[in-house]
Amino acid sequence: MSIKKGNKSILELINPTMEYKEQVMNYRKVFLENNESFDGCSGIEECETYEEWIDFDNRLSKKYGKEYTPSTVYLAIRSSDNKLVGIIDFRHRLSEFLLNYGGNIGYSVLPEERRKGYAKEMLKLVLEYCKGYGLNRILVTCDKDNIGSYKTIKANGGILENEVIDEVNLSKSGVIQRYWIDL
User: Fold this and answer.
1) What sign does the CA torsion over 4, 10, 15, 18 have?
2) DSSP 44
3) CA 169 to chain centre
4) Which DSSP helix (H) or strand (E) runs through 51?
5) At 140, phi and psi to the nearest 5?
6) Cα torsion at 98, 104, 110, 115 (round to 10°)?
7) CA 66 distance to own-chain centroid
8) What is the model's pTM?
């Protein structure tokens, strides 16, 4: 999947491969050093190696048990220089936890690559992929204080359903906004 500017693709979503091992592990390092939230990163903060991280189904099904939801992780790669700028995760269905707090999609962008429209493009691209799962709508959530994220969600058709008190410590504000996007 890619987004085009004129005839030139500027962002591509790809499955993680060994080609991006160093960039992904640097992404992890940057987020840890800056105390960033690992949204959409499928637990990379808990993994010491790339190989451990990309074993998504095995690792996450053990961690979450019956609450485990299969997902697809994509790396957002800038076409002009093959640079990893973000990570986005599409959860194929909603567990009770995801319905209340996490949603179908999580994403993050490297701090130095923010405010360039990448999150908006990443979400737009992954929504096209979601249609292939026969879903009518997708839930995307964000911290009430995350202005960039709620603008990204709204720009992709997100309609605010409600705000919930964050009882699981996912947000900084203590309030999670729940948006539905019709496919």
Assistant:
1) positive
2) G
3) 18
4) helix 50-53
5) -130, 135
6) -110
7) 22
8) 0.93
Separation between Cα atoms, residue 26 and residue 127, nearest integer Å: 27
Cβ neighbours, 10 Å, residue 153: 28
**Contact call for residues 153 and 142 (beta carbons, < 8 A):** yes
Rg of the chain over CA atoms, in angstroms? 15
> Strand locations in 18-78, DSSP E?
71-78
Tokens read off for 77 = 């790669």
Q: Which conformational region is residue 115 in: left (phi greater than 0), alpha (psi within -120 to 50 degrees), or beta?
A: left
The model's pLDDT over 3-27, given as tens digits with 9 standing for 90+, comes to 555 555 589 999 999 999 999 999 9
* 76 phi, psi to nearest 5 deg: -95, 110
Q: What is the mean pLDDT of residues 146-162?
A: 97
What is the C-alpha separation between 108 and 89, in angstroms, rounded? 9
Q: What does the alpha-carbon distance between residue 35 and residue 122 come to, in Å, rounded to a whole number? A: 22
CB atoms near residue 81 (< 10 Å): 7
Overall size of the chain counted in residues: 183
Q: Where are the beta strands (DSSP E) in 79-143?
A: 83-91, 105-109, 137-143
Could you count the other beta carbons within 10 Å of the beta carbon of residue 128?
12
> Token pair of 157, please?
């058709």
Q: Which domains does the chain have, with CATH numbers?
A: 2-182 (3.40.630.30)
Q: Is 131 exposed, middle or buried (0-12, 13-18, 19+ CB in 10 A)?
A: exposed
